[in-house]
Amino acid sequence: MVAAGAQVLGAITVGDNSRIGAGSVVIKPVPDNCTVVGVPGRVVVREGVKVGRLEHGDLPDPVIELLADIRRRLEVLEKRLDPVARR
Distance between terminal CA atoms of the chain? Predict the structure, then answer.
């Protein structure tokens, strides 16, 4: 079963009796008897047993990561320009 809005990207095999949650994006093969959710898709149930937990509060924030990278790069540039500014 592939729920509403889910996407299976590429030539990917979805195993027998597997389910893809709504809005999920599957980027690798899904084994038999699994439930996959999330972006990218992660197996959360295998053979009827929960596998780990999907904690939305612990997911990485790409915007925060991008801003942190920009800040690090800006600090490097400011250090390089500091001697020029002192002239």
Answer: 68
Q: What is the pLDDT of residues 5-36, one digit of tens each?
A: 999 999 999 999 999 999 999 999 999 999 99
Whose structure tokens read 């320009």?
81
CATH number of 7-54: 2.160.10.10
Q: How far apart are CA 35 and CA 1, in angstroms?
A: 9
Where do the structural domains in the chain lie, given as residue ranges?
Answer: 7-54
- Structure pTM? 0.58
Cα 51 to the chain's mean position, in Å?
17
Extract the tokens encoding 34.
């699994």
State the burial class of residue 21 (Cβ atoms within 10 Å of its Cβ: 0-12, 13-18, 19+): buried
